[in-house]
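Next comes one such specimen:
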Amino acid sequence: MRKRKYTIPTYFAFGWLGLAAFLAVFGSFLPVDGYQVIHGDFIDSPPFTPGHWFGVDSNGYDIFSGVINGARLSIFIAVVTVGLGGVIGALLGITAAYYRGRYDSFVNTAFNVVLSVPNLVLALALVAVLATNVDINEAVPTWRRLATLVISLTIVIVPILGRIARAATLAWSGREFVIAARSMGMRDRDIISRHILPNVLPALIAVGFLAVGVVIIAEASLSLLGVGIPDGASWGGMLARGRNDLEYNPHALYFPIIALAFTVISSNHVGDVMRGRLDRREGRL
């Protein structure tokens, strides 16, 4: 009997992440009303109301439309943040571990300093400073909040992925094939691109899935604190908009919480699975 490649929970995690990615990319083409359309005749409607599968919140917004639209912004922020953080962190971590010396000490110290501050506190401080206007009566544009949020969370993610890249590079740079390439006069840039990076990349991808969960939770937390994406445009924004409805209209919070929780759990599970396969691969080398 052929052994199953993945377990059922892993297939579920892949399926959920695929669904979230589909909604993020093609959600605007689905035949549903916009998430900011107000349905005044259905305020506080429960789930499974005709035409409103997830119900309507106390402001008249359709929750199903909000969950679909929230996937677009929440997934976008997570993917862009982890992508930028991975590129910058990999560049710093790999070069620091390969060249060593004072440069390595400086980069490692910078990573430790950033990691010493709690992720949410650091992101909150950066967003609060960068996404505010001198005139408190003037609203901050959504694009500015979004850009500030991505930059702030990228700064949080860089040392996490950078330390992974540095540790993996230290392990691979002492392997025989790297030493042989160096002895044959191969340039450092070619050694890094051909021998170091391909072996470091799987570890970064595995931890990157874990980082996606961190970013989604951080974005939702910042929205609840009032410095994230406003107007219910993301899953965190939906939680912030409906936090006063918990007693009388709890389903306005349940559905975005379920979507957020399933996405975080699935990304963490996929990251754990990939890290386990990576550990087995390195054990055979």
